[in-house]
Design brief:
This protein is of the alpha+beta class. It has one domain. It contains 3 helices and 4 strands. The strands form 2 sheets. A two-stranded parallel sheet has the order 1-2. Helix 1 runs parallel beside helix 3. The N and C termini lie far apart (34 Å). The mean pLDDT is 89.
């Protein structure tokens, strides 16, 4: 369960390396904020996720303010969990609010 500061630092590292500046979109998985050991109310979960979204947007604003950002995507350590092609192409259509993963050449 990465903290908001950890999320910011991860993206700042990508920004300093020029990766955020070269990206055409950022897909950010819905962060885990609970576990078997850490139980939170729905309000606390919402607050925790909002803090992480704010950290992501803050980092993006510093390194590529025009970057298309899609937050809370169900991939990574989420449940339910969607598959994305590793090293493959993903199309992000902001107007239609759709993400398409391309699993073939």
């Amino acid at each position: 369960m990465p903290s908001p500061d950890h999320c910011l630092r991860m993206l700042r590292n990508l920004g300093e390396r020029g990766i955020l500046g070269a990206a055409s979109a950022l897909l950010w998985g819905r962060p885990p904020v609970t576990s078997r050991e850490v139980v939170r109310s729905e309000a606390e979960v919402a607050d925790q996720r909002a803090e992480r979204r704010e950290a992501v947007l803050r980092a993006v604003a510093d390194y590529n303010p025009s970057l298309v950002v899609v937050l809370d995507v169900d991939f990574g350590h989420t449940s339910p969990q969607l598959l994305l092609p590793y090293g493959g192409r993903v199309t992000v259509d902001g107007e239609r609010r759709e993400i398409t993963a391309h699993f073939t050449g």
